[in-house]
């Protein structure tokens, strides 16, 4: 796509992003059907969550590869990401399947770093780090396992995975804060040298 041609708003990556936003409430409806612990509906909720997570994996990749990046996509994609993980975490906590403190730690980090990255746009775009990408993958995997009906004998698997996700969530959050301080300090040094 050449620079002269505007990127169409209705394109595959944006359709995937919007579909993820639509799937979030649908998945939550299935999560809460009955008493919220009926196996068949939990499996349906997991399938919807998995499909939404897959769209998250591909919408940005397709947008960059095909030159279909739009301002709408830049704004809607992170909102859809947070809605997906945040909505399911809150739903699981309401049902008593996820301790509230875990949901609060993850949501505080996700929202806080999103705001930080928006604030840092005045200096430069803070691209997602490799640690951040690994964190997202482990987070989604752990949350997905909590949506699925799970035998007590295997509880240690998803508990361990969620513990790893929490460590990555906090660790990468600290990394983003350190990176932002470094970027801001470098920018201020540059401003001082320009003024001389």
Task: Write the SSE topology.
Blueprint: H1 12-32, H2 39-65, H3 71-94, H4 100-119, H5 130-147, H6 155-195
Helix pairs in contact: 1-2, 1-3, 2-3, 2-5, 3-4, 3-5, 4-6, 5-6
Describe the structure.
The chain has 196 residues and is mainly alpha-helical. It has one domain: CDP-alcohol phosphotransferase transmembrane (TM) domain (Four Helix Bundle (Hemerythrin (Met), subunit A), Up-down Bundle), CATH 1.20.120.1760. Helices cover 77% and strands 0% of the residues. The protein has six helices and no strands. It has helices at residues 12-32, 39-65, 71-94, 100-119, 130-147, 155-195. Helix 5 (130-147) runs antiparallel to helix 6 (155-195). The longest helix is centred in the C-terminal third of the chain and has 41 residues, at 155-195.
- The CATH topology is Four Helix Bundle (Hemerythrin (Met), subunit A)
Count every beta strand, where a strand is a DSSP E run of 2 or more residues: 0
Q: Alpha-carbon distance between the termini?
A: 42 Å
- Which oligomerization state do the chains in this entry correspond to? single chain
Whole-number tally of structural domains:
1
Secondary-structure element series:
HHHHHH
- Rough shape? globular
- The named CATH superfamily: CDP-alcohol phosphotransferase transmembrane (TM) domain
Q: Give the class from helix and strand content and strand pairing.
A: mainly alpha
| Helix-residue proportion | over 70%
Number of helices, where a helix is a run of at least 4 consecutive DSSP H or I residues:
6
Largest sheet: none
Strand content: under 5%
CATH structural class: Mainly Alpha
């Amino acid at each position: 796509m050449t620079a002269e041609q505007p990127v169409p708003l209705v394109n595959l990556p944006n359709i995937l992003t919007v579909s993820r936003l639509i799937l979030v409430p649908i998945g939550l409806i299935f999560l809460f059907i009955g008493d919220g612990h009926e196996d068949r509906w939990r499996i349906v909720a997991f399938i919807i969550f998995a499909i939404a997570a897959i769209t998250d994996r591909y919408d940005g990749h397709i947008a960059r590869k095909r030159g279909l990046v739009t301002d709408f996509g830049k704004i809607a994609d992170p909102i859809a990401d947070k809605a997906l993980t945040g909505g399911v975490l809150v739903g699981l906590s309401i049902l008593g399947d996820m301790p509230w403190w875990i949901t609060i730690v993850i949501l505080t980090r996700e929202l806080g770093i999103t705001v930080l990255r928006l604030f840092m746009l005045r200096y430069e775009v803070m691209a997602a780090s490799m640690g951040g990408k690994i964190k997202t993958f482990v987070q989604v995997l752990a949350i997905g396992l909590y949506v699925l009906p799970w035998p007590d004998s295997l509880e240690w698997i998803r508990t361990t995975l969620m513990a790893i996700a929490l460590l990555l969530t906090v660790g990468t959050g600290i990394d983003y804060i350190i990176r932002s301080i470094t970027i801001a300090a470098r920018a201020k040094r540059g401003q001082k040298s320009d003024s001389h």
